[in-house]
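Hey, I was hoping to borrow your eyes for a little while. I'm sending you its amino acid sequence along with the backbone structure tokens. Take your time with it, there's no hurry, and the full record follows here.
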Amino acid sequence: MRSGSFVSPCKPQKPAHILLRRLFFWGLSVIPILAHQNFADFTTPLPLKQGDTLVIGMVGGWDDWDLPHRIVRRICLHLRTEQLPRTYIETVENHRLELAQELIQRALDGNGDGVLSAAERSSARIVIYGQSLGGSATIQLCRWLQKQEIPVLLNVQIDSVGFRDGKVPSNVKAAANLYQREMGPIRGRSRIQAEDARKTVILGNWRYRYPRSKKIDVSEETPLRQLLMNPHVKMEFDPEVWQKVEDLIRSSIASSGPAEMR
């Protein structure tokens, strides 16, 4: 919209502070992506066998899917070293939801006919987690899965930033929210709710606090983001947060049914 142009009162506008916050956040991200993520980057064997678990992490900002210092990728790599039985973990850029959707479809398509049967959909064992814009993207992915009638064992949002990321769809069995609300331009979603409390358990809305006295090693982050997004950055590099998310994922996989070794 050009400066000075008329805004119709009949058309609702997003609050200016929300737009400014999003523009600020995206402006600090690395916008020029030279190498987009491709489906060939996934290492999960397809299709999965019945009883296998697929864990998908949604990366924040415009960061590449495989940056090892980002919290979502760090959790993925660490859980892979634990070799959880029959569990496969991937990370996806939050602006490439179509890759996550294709991965899930092909993972569940046991007979390879290109169509998911009711049995293939209902047997899905999917865990999703994401940080910042990736946290918001997890809800978008869950809503898409809801339309496909595919259940989700667990969805975890980490300092989630978005417009419609506060209500968890009813196809999600359990959900959790970790956030900070310190002074600064980026503040995470403070509360998530179940669309249907009979079908979704909200495990918790856990707030993390980052006073100046709390020391977190953020040396892998750029100086500009350290300065302008300090609490948001601190939470991403907080070992307590990594541990909490990993514990939630392990617990969900274990409690949803024993996965026998191949």
